[in-house]
Amino acid sequence: MAVDEAWGYGRLREARRVPRRLSAPDPLPYARLAIPAVFLDREIAPGVARAQVTRGAWLRIRRGAYVETAELDDDVHRRARQLVLATAVAVDLQTSATAVFSHATAAAIWGLPLYRLPERTHILVSSSRAGDTSRDIARHDVGKPTEGIAERRGLVVTTLERTVVDCARTLDARGGLVVADAALAAGARRDVLETLVAAARGGRGVRCARDVVAAADDGAESAGESVARWSLIRAGLPAPVTQVPVGTHLGTFWVDLGWPAWRMAAEYDGVAKYGGATTAIVLAEKRRQDAIEEAGWRVIRLTAADVRDPIALARRLRARLPPGALRRTRVLAD
Predict the structure, then answer these.
(1) InterPro entries recorded for this chain (predicted)?
(2) What range defines the domain where residue 131 resides?
(3) Nearest alpha-carbon partner for 87 in 59, 115, 54, 114
(4) Of 4, 126, 140, 179, whose Cβ has the fewest other Cβ atoms within 10 Å?
């Protein structure tokens, strides 16, 4: 993030007082996602699991644990998240002591969006020699794993704020920002986040966590918008304001990101935004953009290709920005 306060997030937090839209999506989009029932080898007759897996009725999620394939969502992304949740349940059932889930696993249990789902189940332990040592478990040795915990969906997890900081310290800045934005919108307290970061001073990943917490904005309404904002900051732009109302002859429209002083907006076009869109929806979006531009605003459309290459994005934006808008500042790292 920019260290120059004129372009940084300290000033943005004070300046931004735009209310979230009444129609804003749920910041915990997966909070009610069904968790498939978990079957354990130790609870069923010998040979049953193998037979069920062979005929495709069950899926093995970890050693000795299975779920019914019929309970899994048809959508590949929701299905993958269900498997993360079911695996956490399996770990909890197979662990002698109560498992405390943390980091990206806790984020998944809370229902927060994630840039990438965790490949292993993250838990807190009080000793590197305690508990399950399976390779599919990422074990984080902490002094007192009972501090900063809560209960969510019948599982013991780190609190929303602790989950954010843990993710910000271990994920890249882009992934950390996705979690932090949604958590703030869901009610996480920024002062608690800042206290947790300060308490971890000198630890691994704290610098990234400090930048992520400072950059986090509860106005982001999707993981795509968070990543788009990250790419703009990486390109050297000052932090955009989220959910900017623009008055037009058709009424007020809300743009994803914007710089009101420049009357410039940035809209993120993810696959989900237009997936299966009808001609009427596409035409309505064009009419909306025309109205915004007729009101004196410039609109930049961002895609997944743009967010993957901030350098190319900076080149694309340079001709459309006021002189000196792109500045050489320390920004969020990859």
Answers:
(1) Restrct_endonuc-II-like
(2) 38-215
(3) 59
(4) 4
Tell which residue, 232, 274, 225, 268, has the closest CA to residue 115: 225
Kindly list the distances between the CA atom of residue 192 and the CA atoms of 103, 161, 167, 208, 270, in Å, as whole numbers in the listed order.
17, 7, 15, 17, 32
**Region label for 41, one of left (φ > 0), alpha (ψ between -120 and 50) or beta (otherwise):** alpha
Q: How far apart are the first and last CA of the chain?
A: 11
Give the residue, 164 or 23, on which the prediction is more confident. 164
Helices (H), 97-157: 103-110
Q: Structure tokens of 284?
A: 């309505």
Query: Mind listing the pLDDT tens digit for each residue in 268-309?
Result: 887 555 455 568 888 888 999 999 999 999 998 988 888 888
Same domain? For 145 and 260 the reply is: no
Residues 206, 247: one domain?
no
Cβ neighbours, 10 Å, residue 111: 20
- The strand pairing partners of 141, in sequence order, are 125
Tokens encoding 302: 């961002």
